[in-house]
Amino acid sequence: YLFDALVRLGEDVYRLAKQRGMDYVTLTDHDSIDGCLYLLNKHPDLDDFFISEEVETWFPDTRQRIHVNVFAIDEKQHAEIQRRRPNIYDLHEYIRDEKILASANHMFQNYRMRNSPRHYFEEMLRMFDVFEVKNGAMTSHHNRLIEDLMGVVREKRGAVSLVAGSDAH
């Protein structure tokens, strides 16, 4: 019963996103593509919906946790992503080699000073070109911090893309 209710919610999210003018829609559940697969199986004609997920991964030396969205993946890629997710460097290597679009999400939500802020930020910039700067579940202070940091990065480096999300899992 609970699974059916969650699936209906996914359909509602899709419908609402389209009503609000979104050209493409995806669901990014934590470490799962079940909702995406169910929606596509139930509505195989959707050409504006793609499979994605939010992956929880860690820096191996500090166990610093980070969330990464991976977009437009398939079931085989999902399985390999899940296999590699315990180590952000292994995960990054795979998504880079597969040319999977990925974003670093709410970078400082779980930051606990396990490594220097500069080293952490430089590693994230080395691995990602897309960063979440607006998140409906984060404080405005967190969102503003990330947006300000990305503004500085854009001035110095250029090529960085910004995304937003609801984080409504």
State the main characteristics.
alpha/beta; 3-stranded antiparallel β-sheet; two-stranded parallel ribbon; 6 helices
Q: Compute the average pLDDT.
A: 84
- Number of distinct helices: 6
Please state the structural category: alpha/beta
Q: What radius of gyration results from the CA coordinates?
A: 16 Å
How many strand segments?
7
Query: Major β-sheet, in short?
Result: 3 strands, antiparallel
Strand order of the largest sheet: 3-4-5
Indicate the low-confidence ranges by residue numbers. Answer: none
Assembly type of the shown chains?
A: single chain
The helix-strand sequence is HEHEEEHHEHEHE
Beta-strand share of residues? 15-25%
| Relative helix content | 40-55%
